Amino acid sequence: HPERCAATIIAAHRSGWQVATHAIGDRAVDLVLDSYEEAQRQYPRHDPRHRIEYCAVTSPQQVDRIVQAGVVPVPQGSLVREVGDSVLRSLGPEPSKWCNRVRSFLERDVSVPGNTDRPVVNGAPLNNVHALVTRRTLAGETLAPEECISVDDGRPVLCRRPHRTDMPGGPDAAPDLVDLWGTVVYDMRSGSDFGRVRVHQAE
After folding, report:
1. Are 63 and 110 spatial neighbours (Cβ–Cβ below 8 Å)?
2. Whole-prediction pTM value?
3. Is the dihedral of CA 29, 32, 38, 43 positive or negative?
4. Considering 62, 78, 107, 136, which has the largest number of Cβ atoms within 10 A of its Cβ?
5. Closest alpha carbon to 37 in 61, 9, 56
């Protein structure tokens, strides 16, 4: 029911909520973008930072709309690895170029947060970054190689939280250090890996 979806989004926007809507295919992304744009037209708000979870298939025109609307796309790198082969079989080589974009958004200064879609797929954060850097599927194919990003770009993606506006440095700031599972610490400034460390929890 597209009308019901749009009405729900507009009501939430009017009430001051940040809306996060799941949309995978390009038709679903259009529906969500139409609703976000209409909500902002009716009830203007400063930087509502509405999100599109998955945002899995986006045309170049939709990338433009996302940028212009200030919407936060939330792709899952792990899906590139674990379902990328199905995507290539279903969509073919050309439409597959639109899948799970990250580089296209980063190049337009869009803040892209990382998401693993756990427990549907493997939730290991570094596997997520690895998938965004290599774009390799389980069968060894490369899904949308134009969307490969660097490791340096991948680490901030792992740590961004665009829904938080109260973080030091603003909602798009990346941390200086990252503690993964209490065993591995990364220096986000230099890219150094401190390896396995003992982590003491403060009282």
Report:
1. no
2. 0.81
3. negative
4. 78
5. 9
